[in-house]
Design goal:
Layout (H helix, E strand, L loop, with lengths): L18 E7 L8 E7 L2 E7 L2 E8 L4 H11 L9 E9 L2 E8 L1 H10 L3 E2 L30 H10 L5 H6 L3 E6 L5 E7 L2 H14 L8 E4 L5 H9 L4 E4 L5 H10 L2 E7 L2 E6 L4 H11 L1
Parallel strand pairs: 3-6, 4-7, 10-11, 11-12
Antiparallel strand pairs: 1-2, 3-4, 5-6, 8-9, 8-10, 12-13
Helix pairs in contact: 1-5, 5-6, 6-7
Length: about 290
């Protein structure tokens, strides 16, 4: 992975590199003096649909095809991955542009609700024009497999092993997709927690897979945006290493989504338990 030398102030970070090498002065520590340091990179990423720029997000410049795909699906721009016909990423000194060609009916719908949405890291509502647009209707995810305490703890213990950018820089979030037994199947990282989840969603669905069995684990708080993004693509269980918000819990209840917070080695808190597949089956049997 290429790293740039940041000694020259005129040196610009390579947009293809998610890491940037610089020199820092660690005065006031036992290692006082100049030393090399590696930091996470971020840059503006423009989401362009059929030639029209819709949003600019700050993101780590890696896995941008996954990011754009996941963003399009979790933000309801696309209903299905096959509505994205083509995707190309272009870099310039100003940032990255992701050019997407989408189905005409989806572009028509996007134009009807289009708003200028300039986002920043960790800010999911920048650019929203009114309170009516602040919180979208959330879909129900339906019954999903029960996730055991053992599975949650297994995934939590293993997450750090799948976070190379975090290990290098201490500045990135991760989103992981885990099997029902807690095995981590895929991970994406980014400086923004929403971006990491979007990248994971895009990666998984671009492989032709779905979120029918398993759970998502995120290295951040369980905000309402994370709950909404999860529900939009059918993720039935979201596990966060930090606290959820009250709005996130209410949204999880609306969506029938299992929401778990404070997931640390040895403990986690279940804030809402959605209906499991076994419970749904039992109810159906009772009806018949």
């Amino acid at each position: 992975m290429p790293l740039n030398d940041g000694d020259d102030p005129a040196t610009k970070p390579d947009p293809l590199a998610p890491l940037f090498r610089t020199r820092v002065d660690e005065r006031g520590t036992e290692h006082s003096g100049e030393t090399d340091d590696v930091v996470a990179e971020e840059m503006p990423v423009a989401m362009v649909y059929n030639g029209i720029s819709h949003a600019v997000m700050m993101a780590t410049p890696v896995d941008l095809e996954d990011f754009a795909t996941g963003f399009s699906l979790t933000e309801s721009i696309l209903d299905r991955p096959d509505e994205l016909y083509d995707i190309e990423v272009h870099f310039s000194p100003a940032g990255a542009t992701v050019e997407m060609t989408i189905a005409s009916e989806r572009m028509f719908a996007l134009k009807a609700q289009r708003r200028n949405m300039t986002g920043r890291t960790g800010c999911g509502l920048c650019g929203t024009e009114s309170l009516d647009h602040a919180i979208r209707d959330i879909p129900e995810v339906g019954a999903h497999p029960a996730i055991t305490d053992e599975a949650v703890q297994k995934a939590v213990r293993e997450l750090k092993q799948h976070q190379p950018l975090q290990a290098e820089t201490g500045a990135t979030h991760a989103a992981a997709w885990c099997d029902v037994d807690g095995t981590i199947l895929a991970v994406r990282e980014d400086v923004g927690r929403h971006n990491a989840l979007d990248k994971l969603v895009g990666h998984w669905l671009r492989q032709g897979r779905d979120f029918g069995r398993g759970f998502a684990l995120v290295s951040s708080r369980g905000s309402f945006e994370m709950v909404q993004k999860s529900a939009m693509v059918g993720i039935g269980c979201l596990v966060a290493v930090s606290a959820p918000t009250g709005l996130a819990i209410r949204e999880a209840r609306k969506a029938n989504l299992t929401l778990i917070g404070f997931a640390r080695p040895g403990r986690h808190v279940i804030y809402h338990c959605g209906q499991t597949s076994a419970e749904a089956g039992a109810m159906q049997e009772n009806k018949t």
